[in-house]
Amino acid sequence: MMYVLAYDISTENANGRKRLRKVAETCENYGQRVQKSVFEFQLDDKKFLMMRNEVLELMNKKKDNIRIYKIIAPKDNYVEEHGNFKSVDYDNDTLLI
C-alpha cells in the first residue's frame, strides 16, 4: 500500500530541531523524501504500523503536526508530478545501489 506522510515540526528550540531531524531520519528509513517535509512509502501493513508508531512517538502533540494519507488506487490515478524530481516506481523492479 502506498502512503504519503507530511509533517510540520516546531523548531522554536533545540528540542524541536532534534525532533525534526529524528522524524526525517525515521521516514528516510522507510520511504522516499519527495519534498522537505513530505515522504512517500510503499509498505505492507506491518511496516506501516512500525513506521507510524516510531514517528508518533517522536512528535510533540502540542506543537507538531503529522498527517498520513493512504493512497488506495493506483498512484497514477491520483498523483501528478511536475518539475525535475522523479519518484521511485514501486510497481516495477527497482535496483537501489
Automatic annotation (TrEMBL):
Gene Ontology biological process: defense response to virus; maintenance of CRISPR repeat elements
Entry-linked InterPro entries: CRISPR_associated_Cas2, Virulence_VapD/CRISPR_Cas2
Gene Ontology molecular function: any one: RNA endonuclease activity
Lineage top rank: taxon: Bacteria
Signal peptide range in chain numbering: none
Coiled-coil portions: none
Keywords: Antiviral defense, Endonuclease, Hydrolase, Magnesium, Metal-binding, Nuclease
A family per Pfam: CRISPR_Cas2
Keyword Cell membrane in annotation: no
Cofactor dependency: Mg(2+)
Enzyme Commission identifier(s): 3.1.-.-
Residues annotated as binding Mg(2+): D8
Subunit structure: Homodimer, forms a heterotetramer with a Cas1 homodimer.
Family note: Belongs to the CRISPR-associated endoribonuclease Cas2 protein family.
Free-text function comment from the UniProt entry: CRISPR (clustered regularly interspaced short palindromic repeat), is an adaptive immune system that provides protection against mobile genetic elements (viruses, transposable elements and conjugative plasmids). CRISPR clusters contain sequences complementary to antecedent mobile elements and target invading nucleic acids. CRISPR clusters are transcribed and processed into CRISPR RNA (crRNA). Functions as a ssRNA-specific endoribonuclease. Involved in the integration of spacer DNA into the CRISPR cassette.
Annotated protein name in UniProt: CRISPR-associated endoribonuclease Cas2
Organism (species): Halanaerobium congolense
Gene: cas2
